Amino acid sequence: MTTTTTTETMPFVSTENFLNEWLGHRRLTRRVIEAFPEDKLFDYSIGGMRPFAEMMKEIIDIAGPGIRGIATDNWENASGFDQHSLNKEDRTKEGLLKLWDQSTEVIIAFWPEISEARFQEVVLAFGQYEGPVYSTILYFIDNEIHHRAQGTVYLRSLGIEPPAFWNRD
Amino acid sequence: MTTTTTTETMPFVSTENFLNEWLGHRRLTRRVIEAFPEDKLFDYSIGGMRPFAEMMKEIIDIAGPGIRGIATDNWENASGFDQHSLNKEDRTKEGLLKLWDQSTEVIIAFWPEISEARFQEVVLAFGQYEGPVYSTILYFIDNEIHHRAQGTVYLRSLGIEPPAFWNRD
């Protein structure tokens, strides 16, 4: 099958390969969550920053609902960057990992629903953040890498070696 | 002008737009370097991690030589992830920022020399790391975001508010 494209959309990476890169990041981030002692996940902080569980809840609130919104234009119940605390029943490592895995499933389910053209369109993500879809998705992932890296400093300061950055298996 | 492409290379983002995303990251990372007090840039550490200047020297050693290598297949004097300490004359904030800016210029100069097909080819970056070019470049940037984020924890623990993550101007 061939399609017509212009030099403007000369590809850096295909959508399929890019999704695989992201899923590799999500596997690594999951391991960083797992590396935290249960209590430190919810109450440890450096310099007044949020505990790692709250940072990860932000990523959970962005990733699944963000990709669903981009695919469907349905932003209902998508709080996005307006941070929400964890429900009492989710305030365990197991609960957080469960939310994480559900979020990964939503990404995998909705990614194929995003049309080729859609990635270059402008979207108002979460009804608030305007930008091209590719840039919006890159931002979701940048934000995941950013907070995960902050978590690795928390781990090091607790004397725990973080999972290897290069391992995305 | 139209070209023929297959669904395999369906674009997530064009090479031109992706370069602009990266340059936005580099502007932000530069501001994080600038936000450090001169002495703390070279000697402050949490949990036995490297000072921020050394992390940034790694990014400098990867980015420019990495893009030059991908564009030209010349990996001479490209130390990459084998970390090197800063020369004595570069051990100032001004010296580090100068290396940073030179690195940005190398990226901008060599990026247009990377052919469309090249981004999907497999490269042995720095003679050591095998992978598709797009994945290798994403890794360079992941690594920048990762160490920059660690620097923001250093800043917070020093009572300094880091530059806004969302601002890439």
Automatic annotation (TrEMBL), chains A, B:
InterPro entries per record: DinB, DinB/YfiT-like
Alphabetical keyword list: Metal-binding
Signal peptide interval: none
Keyword Metal-binding attached: yes
Pfam families: DinB
Gene3D superfamilies in the cross-refs: dinb family like domain
UniProt KW Transmembrane keyword: no
Binding of a divalent metal cation, residues: 147
Family to which this protein belongs: Belongs to the DinB family.
Name the UniProt record assigns to this protein: Damage-inducible protein DinB
Organism this protein belongs to: Pedobacter hiemivivus
